[in-house]
Design a protein that fits this description.
This protein is an alpha+beta fold. The chain folds into 3 domains: 108 residues, no CATH class; 54 residues; 145 residues, Heat Shock Protein 90 (2-Layer Sandwich), CATH 3.30.565.10. It contains 11 helices and 7 strands. It has a 5-stranded mixed beta sheet with strand order 2-4-5-7-6, covered by helices on one side. It is elongated.
Length: 396
Amino acid sequence: MPTALHIGMPAIQLAVSWFDAVTERPVAAALVVSALVLGTLIAGLGLRVIARRTRSLRRHVLAVTLSALGIGALAAVLFAELMIIDSRDLERIAGLLCVTAVFATLLVLVASVPLGRDAERLERTVRSIEAGDREVRTRVDRADELGHVARALDELTARLGTLERERAGYEAERTAMLSSVGHDLRTPLAALRAATEALADGIAPDPDRYLRSMQRDLEALTALVDDLFLVARIEAGRLDWDPTSIDLTEVADEAVEALTPVAASKGVTLRLEAATRVRVNGNAAALGRVIRNLLDNAIRHAPEGSGIVVDVSSDGQATLRVSDDGPGFPAQFSDDAFGRFTRADTSRNRETGGAGLGLAIARGLVEAHGGRIWIEPPPGGRVAFELPQPAPVVTT
């Protein structure tokens, strides 16, 4: 039975023979090394050409394997020329290399089956992505570079699908926005045109009334444009203000007082309920805008002769709730109530609502203060928002 020493003897003898050849025939040894290096470079360049032109990874792997055996055969021939190995051994080595080439080819063909299959999967996946399929996946599970490419491709496909869904949503939202803006602009502009034509032609029976109507339409247009700019600033994160400590109860009281005449004209009463002062850090004008938007929405939908209650409380969070005796928000509308240009009245009648930006602005301003806003379930129409409160100052 061969031992490790016996197995290592040919290697030792080869090393000794190589050393003797270098010392005795240095020029020939240098030429042999140069020939091997040159042969290796030529084989490498040839394999690079094959890699660019072949359509099969299995063929490329087979070419690399056979090229390695060819380099081995070249080394055997050159070593025989240097008499490092015996010429009789060269025949045995040549036969051994031929047998090795056969089994190496068989090994490559068997072992490279998963490689070829996974490469084909990658190709099919890419073609499916090109055709618009965003649900396709490579189903390649490998730990090597091909596996890294497959995982990256799957992540890219998933991201593309997400981006396309977002783009479709943005496109639908943009279309709805343009339609809504066009509708909300068309009505006052048409009224202004009719009024100016009547005044210009001298057929207006009551010019003062026409001028008052034109002024209201201009105010509606100005409010819509201001709201559009505010929504754009909210979505761009460009709400710049220096938060200060304010009394939310006082801000709510000012909003109730400002809108009481509007509510009274519709037969609705406003009432503020607050057991204590509630302080928050924020911008008084912005929070006042939120409360007025909520009150304006409630006034539009509250039945005549009913009341609207603004309740301000504090329980770790500053909470403001606007409640009215109206029918409340439709269940199918509640999820979209805070979106831009969304209205429960799809006819967009100016008598029953504005441009559909009030709640969207309220949500943006509340969230800019680090709070949240929501619609409470029926019965009745109730919208509430909460804001974080500053930590109490501890005095010693």
